[in-house]
Write a structure and sequence with these properties.
homodimer; Rossmann fold; six-stranded parallel sheet; about 45% helix
Chain lengths: ~260, ~260
Amino acid sequence: MIGIFDSGIGGMTVARAVEQLLPDYSIVYFGDIARTPYGSKSAATITDYSLRNTEFLLKKGAEIIIIACNTASSVATEALRREFQVPIIEVITPAATKAIATTKTGRIGVIGTRATIRSGVYEQTICGQRPDFHVFSEACPLLVPLVEEGWTNKQETKMIIRRYLHPLKDKQIDTLVLGCTHYPLLTQLIQTRVGKRVTLIDSSVETAKYVRDLLTEQPQLIAREEKGIVTHRYFVSDLTDAAKTVARKIFARPLELILT
Amino acid sequence: MIGIFDSGIGGMTVARAVEQLLPDYSIVYFGDIARTPYGSKSAATITDYSLRNTEFLLKKGAEIIIIACNTASSVATEALRREFQVPIIEVITPAATKAIATTKTGRIGVIGTRATIRSGVYEQTICGQRPDFHVFSEACPLLVPLVEEGWTNKQETKMIIRRYLHPLKDKQIDTLVLGCTHYPLLTQLIQTRVGKRVTLIDSSVETAKYVRDLLTEQPQLIAREEKGIVTHRYFVSDLTDAAKTVARKIFARPLELILT
């Protein structure tokens, strides 16, 4: 069983991609809606929450853990790997790897929450492999509340995206990492803003591909269910109408959210 | 000692008003930044947090409790009064009372978080006293993140306020309750939008006045400190740069925030 957690509902973009790429695996998801958002909080608090979320998923039978949240991946991955024996998969490395493979100019943009950008994890990961590359980062803290409100195509959202992306305008990037699992819901507005010559990297999709490749190489990591008894359970620490609406938008189907 | 709690930093507008109106009383404040915001969460979760926050303040010596948060006041006041013996003061009644005293037409607008507006508490309080009055409510969920980002005078914030207040445009209100302790930081933009013939009611200031009157009538509620040893302590459950910046803006002085 694949365990996935996020600060709330953004990580469901990862869960949806995993459902699609790995249809024979069961998923247990935890969305920490009662404490959302993580992106504006301190590293110590985010790490504390991530430890608790992982414990919850392990109790529910998870055999690998996907941190479906760039913020928690940025600051809590090492603590989780120290604390738990199961494979801990974060969303940074798959997105960074894809960005390195995609760029032709070596000029890569990254957008994310304040905590993700402050951590510098994308620069470290990309420039650790390619010291000749240039990474330009911008924190976009209001995009998460805008997505959670469902304002994914409003004029105000377009203006806020324009303001946030403005500093990247003259950097001549050819690749932009969507370094937050909420941002795939804003793909169209962001693509329009940066222009079609810039390739967007979706950390949700890249992470699902990474997990698919991992399980192809090491199938023993997960005790496979028999076909036909795959179950997906979506737990949340709080249940709100806005969460139900965004979940339905992400999965394009009604989704039962189970309150813990 | 006066205990004050809020979901985060918005309640500091109440604390500042209490400091100014009651300079001889000590204050202990708790801002639940680690779980902020409350306004988009469920009543059960908000009540659970409010109970814990009150326990914390009582342990620190609080003799009365001010719920400096419209959201928590809306959904958790009764639970706190059942659970604890000390006076529990909420921000709704003072603001509603002032709105009733202010309006000439009996047409009152209320803006607040989704949880506050959904609770219907302002309608119940105002129409409970004056069934002939009309209350028009609008939830403005993005204003809290905008204030917490410090975007209190940005074009995007003006546009979002315009969108939120649009349904109130034809209601001919003459009084508008700022039903969220973050909104006093947006007074100028909101006043410009609704026009100077509409009187804004600041729940923070009205609550501080209510507490001043209460302590004038019942001074025995608080064992008064000797003059000169008044102390104000501001505790927070998480410490972020954005919180420090907004706190400094509210108090117009550097403020020591103590991490619990």
